[in-house]
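Protocol step 4 of 6: structure prediction from sequence.
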Amino acid sequence: MHPPPKSISFKTFIGLDLSLNGTGVAILRWSQTDGWSRPALHLLKFKTSQLVTKTYQALRLLRIVNRLKDLEVFSGATLAAVEDYALGISTSETNCVFQLGEVGGCVRYHLVAGGVPFVAVPIGSNKKFATGNGAAKKDQVADKMAELWGMKTSQFVSDDVSDALSLASMAAYKHLGDLPGMKTYRFQAALVEPLEIIIAS
């Protein structure tokens, strides 16, 4: 896998693992002539030495969106995958639900506004896609993604990044009907087939 030459037209697939502590971004590019480029992995994490105020929370949304714009996530991607909301989360974590909802809403808005189709992947499905087990641990997802893409697990600076790569792989599989040149399994097809592609008409 090599960085894509600028003269080749690539299909681009994006995985977004949205988190309050760090948003994982994985970008996969594929061309029919040259195959897969090396996965591009990013962790969006914004530190603060101040108290986490409402102003900080608002600015965090702006920083996440602007960084994703810099990565061209909202322009020209073939298909993106975002982990869906955890609707069964404990009521003791209500603030977390609202904050993640804000991040998710901002990202979904910009995907639709930018004409980027996306799929909302149910909680646990990306783990099952990677490992065959929807209750797999984070390090198991990282191991399987590293194996699939010919990487070292040390290249994943965070679990959010390996999760994002699993999501990007699902987006690519959904669009291409497989991961050309990669070893895949029937259960993976069963996971991506029912995913609804969301796009502004």
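Step 5 (inspection) to follow. Strands lie at 11-17, 23-31, 35-36, 40-44, 79-83, 118-121, 197-198.
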